[in-house]
Specification:
The protein is of the alpha+beta class. The protein has 2 helices and 5 strands, in the order H-E-E-H-E-E-E.
Length: 95
């Protein structure tokens, strides 16, 4: 792996049971999936959704919000969609 993300990946690995496991929490899923595949790490992905649909969600990508190593050595990766920003009728962002 070369470039920024290669250095990021190497710097964010933690020793766990004698093997390197990348810390992919906070990364876009497309990038995290590529890093896990390149490192030959087995994983299962689970998508979580908010319990209320008050805020709209982005539909063009997920982010890793949790990773957990299961007893069989497989990483369980929890994904969530990013919330869209609310904009009022006058074009100002509602924080």
């Amino acid at each position: 792996m070369a470039g920024f993300w290669g250095r990021y990946f190497e710097g964010m690995c933690a020793m766990s049971e004698g093997s390197l496991v990348p810390d992919v929490v906070g990364l876009p899923w497309d990038l995290a999936k590529g890093l896990l595949n390149e490192a030959h790490i087995m994983y299962n992905s689970v998508i979580t959704y908010p319990t209320k649909s008050f805020f709209p969600l982005e539909d063009n990508g997920y982010y890793v919000i949790r990773q957990k190593r299961l007893g069989d050595g497989v990483l369980e990766i929890t994904l969530a969609a990013r919330l869209l920003k609310e904009v009022s009728g006058n074009g100002l962002q509602d924080w």
